[in-house]
Amino acid sequence: MSKYIKNIDLASAPVERDNRIDTMRGLLLISMAVDHYGGWIADIVWQPFGYVSDAEGFIYMSGFVFALVYSRYVTDLKKLTKKIFHRAFTVYHYHLYLVFGIPLISLFVPEYQIYWKNMIYYLYNLSVVKYIIGSFFMINQPTYMDILPMYTVFIFFCWPVLLLLIHGKDYIAIALCAAFWLLGQFINPIWYLSAYILPGSAPGIFNFFSWQIVFFMGAYFGFRKHFKMPNTLLEKKYIIIPILLVFCILFIIRHTYYNTELMLRLTERNNLAWLRLIDMCSVFFAIYLIIKKIPIKYGIPLVNFLGKHSLQVFAFHILMMYLLIAPFGTGEEISRTYGNFWYLAGLIIYLSTLPLPALCHDKFMKWQSKKRDLKA
Description:
Distance between the termini: 35 Å
Shape: globular
Number of helices: 20
Number of strands: 0
Structural class: mainly alpha
Order of helices and strands: HHHHHHHHHHHHHHHHHHHH
Strand content: under 5%
Largest sheet: none
Helix content: over 70%
Number of domains: 1
């Protein structure tokens, strides 16, 4: 392997914590929470840089961090497989907590069934058994619950990509990801399964075939960062200038009257249409040029803390959305019914709860660490 990776000795070396990455993940979590809350502030933060949403950023950063951390096991296939499976099932468990835990609340508070009948309609209106089966196999993805199943699948299938990269076969990994993205322009596997195996279930809005390219793009650069491999091509002016030009043009189109029906089709989100993919790359590249100038120790403390516990915060914000929508409605409904003051108050209260799962998980991790030390 060493003939492909010059810094192969770095495989098992611990990864220095990059506060810039955690801060980026924290900002994406806050922005997603605002988007899901809705209302006029959500309209402002929705796709501000072009035809790119927080979901693309979150999936990309998840792939980046995953490869950055788990590349340390690439020299030991058995350990790599074990670690990847463990992480995939950790994310899968959070999916199950949400998809079964939230409906369970409605058994104790029956009024929630009325509020959630459209969000979890498969359970309340069609079949409890099929809801359980579909949820276990991640075919059923109720409102807001479609990212964790996708994240689980991407992690589960990440080990062959890492193995291709460690053997210097980047071109095969890239070709495979591109082929699945192209296939996703014509086929949505979860929608197909939902329509023909569990008709009426909620298949989510993301096409796994298309969106895997975002995760594995992040994994590719996370792998390179782990082994301190320079991205020299991205430093060339003949690369930087055209990409930034694309970023500027699509940014202007997104925020002007040129944002036509044709542009919306070319930048379609569900299947990650080709122009959206290009815009995503240009936006990420522009952010990369800014971030690389910042030392890795710098970050926004509270936002950084959220990013360190992104899985727990993400799952919790979905739970909070279900609990808030029931008595108060979406942010747009609150603003329309009660006015801007209560809209802003609700948003502030909602966002102020996000550190709670991070604090709990941090305490739990410290307790586990202390417990291991005592046993040792």
